[in-house]
Specification:
Elements (H helix, E strand, L loop, with lengths): L14 E6 L2 E6 L4 H7 L6 E2 L6 E2 L12 E4 L2 E5 L10 E3 L12
Parallel strand pairs: 1-7
Antiparallel strand pairs: 1-2, 3-4, 5-6, 5-7
Amino acid sequence: MFRRIDLPPGEAAPAVEITVDGRRIRARAGDTLAAALLCAGVVPFRHTPVTGQPRSPLCLMGVCFDCLVEVDGAQNVQSCMVEVRDGMRVRLPPGARRVEAAS
């Protein structure tokens, strides 16, 4: 679906590795998480809690909220607004947000 533009050696950003639902994915430093996931063929990012319809990034600028994922345990993160970093752990949410019981 998406393909990275090949840059001459020395111009490409260094590679980083993230984990998405247990799968290792290589991305470029400076990429947004949404761009890295799309380049890796990860779609959809989530399913709506009410109808179960698949969702993937639409606007890529933080307006639509269709790219929500869990990043390092933080829920409802807009993947288009977060830069990838080495070791990032991403979980694709299966539906509604988890609510933790108060202790």
